[in-house]
Amino acid sequence: MKPRLIVILSLALVFFLLGCGSQQAAPPEPAASAQKEAQQETAPAAEAEEPMTPEEREGYIKKVEAELKQMDDRIVELKEQAQKASGATRDKLNEAIKELDEKRKVAQEKLEGLKGAGDKAWSATKKGTDKAVDEVKKTYERVKSLF
Fold this sequence. Notes:
Largest sheet: none
Oligomer: single chain
Helix content: over 70%
């Protein structure tokens, strides 16, 4: 009788464990859709983290350098326009342009760091560079809207 009881309990335990596993494998529908959305949102990030060839890296660096050069030209134009303003408006514009200059310098520092980044640091350094360049662009648009 004891061997039979052990077999029955063992089978019951196996079925119990299998039953628990299947409930975890099939989450409720809202969680499944949230998981799909998260995968869709992270898919571009996962693609972006694929290693870049040296040629792709060089192309990316040149693209960012061109963007920053274009931003330099725009900053010069803003400075010229600010000189035409008077009084408190001029002071406000110069402060905003000073902030823009600082963010531009940060972006340049990030780019310089990217130029010397190795394979392991490239992805993180690139993200930092992208963020800094985006900040420059946003700040430029904000300053431009003051005119």
